[in-house]
Amino acid sequence: MDAVTVTDLVVDRGRRRVLPGLSFTVPAGQVTGLLGPSGSGKTTLMRALVGVQQVRSGRVTVLGRPAGSPDLRRRVGYVTQAPSVYADLTVRENARYFASLYGMGAREADAAIADVGLAGAAGQLVADLSGGQRGRASLACALVGSPEVLVLDEPTVGLDPVLRVELWERFHGLAAAGTTLIVSSHVMDEAGRCDRLLLLRDGELIADSTPAQLRADGHSEDLEEAFLTVVRAREEVAA
Ligand SMILES: Nc1ncnc2c1ncn2[C@@H]1O[C@H](COP(=O)(O)OP(=O)(O)OP(=O)(O)O)[C@@H](O)[C@H]1O
């Protein structure tokens, strides 16, 4: 089953056409990576998926409903690049506050904090956390409502390698339990951790693939190299 269907999506931001007509589907219960260089349109696409981006034309369907439908609010979680937690509350207070909005209790809040590896900092004010910790506090607040679709904009930026691996394990744990995750990144070494890959460049979909297929198409075990080979092959065809 597909959790997300995007058909002929066109988005302009300012006077620029950022997404010139995207079509793809995202399977449910998997981790789909949205990979592409800075400025390729990843955030714009994620905003369209959660229904906060004005779109010029096209259709975005999430869990069978138009993106942004009121009944999707509880079912879709979105973590932006800028952590969206209250700086003057502790991590625990933030998580419990968001839990209460979803009708959840302290137990779920504490579990979400533990999931992102912040149990030791639960009593600390968010204002006193490092950038990476703040990002994880934000993630905990999105996890607390157990959304069916989780859209995460560069969730591992600034994290040390051990935490990154732990978070990716957590993502796969969530997917195994049925959650659909869409995770953006601009570092190709994270591409290998995804079940599926959407590769964006200048708002266009260069590949809708799996890591194994991309390696085969790009004739390289190294995903970055494989990606470059696929990009160059496309450019030669276009020239
Ligand atoms: N509010 C805005 N008004 C006009 N143009 C914008 C606006 N926000 C983004 N853009 C442009 O849209 C394009 C895509 O931006 P977007 O943030 O979606 O890219 P991205 O792939 O998420 O980049 P990054 O990895 O750096 O976050 C960029 O060229 C950017 O300059």
TrEMBL record:
Molecular-function GO terms, alphabetical: ATP binding; ATP hydrolysis activity
Gene3D superfamilies listed in its UniProt record: P-loop containing nucleotide triphosphate hydrolases
Superkingdom classification of source: Bacteria
Residue ranges constituting the ABC transporter domain according to the UniProt record: 4-227
Native organism: Blastococcus haudaquaticus
Protein name (record): ABC-2 type transport system ATP-binding protein
Keywords, alphabetical: ATP-binding, Nucleotide-binding
